[in-house]
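Reading a protein record of the kind used here takes only a little practice. The integers have meaning only within a learned vocabulary of local backbone shapes. With that in mind, consider the following protein and its fold in token form:
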Amino acid sequence: MAVIKVPPPPVDRNVFFQVAGYFAEIMKGMRLTLGIFFRQLLRMEKTNTLEWPEQPADYGDRFKGKHFLTLRDDGKIRCTACFLCATACPADCIHIEASEHSDSRIEKFPVRFEIDILRCVFCGMCEEACPVDAIRLGPEYAMAGLAGDKWVYTKDYLAQRQELVGGVESIKAESAKHIDTGADKRRSYLRHGVH
């Protein structure tokens, strides 16, 4: 085994100038920060602070928030348990158990549909993969909580939670299998608002 001797690094005689340069840059940043602080403190400049939850945040139309399941015309969940959303999910947070449906026109339905929201990355892949418009990401953004069971959204919670005011109906026809890409149908109308 050969030993390679490496010469020591050269001594930089301009250490004073380097330290002074760092100190000068820190002072520039502090001057900017303190300037904004005092202008807002003395009400010379309006603050951009949002007083949440008294002032709700305003997000764009394409915001991907809390998940929800849409309903068929008869009030049942639209999901056919095809597992496409669970397959497309990069975080592997969707868990579905399927069973045969009593209606012969509907092949399957989910007995259990759960989303582990702590694993979810809110990418919207489940929404795009669903051929029957059963799962969507809505405009709700407040998801604070402490209990461990609160972070696993069940089928009933996803379809009938209080914020949805009685559930969400899909904009697709029952017989439709693919999303209509017409410009007039790109926005989804919910009972609790537009997203």
The chain has a mean pLDDT of 81. Residues 15-49 form one domain. The chain has two domains: 15-49, 67-194.
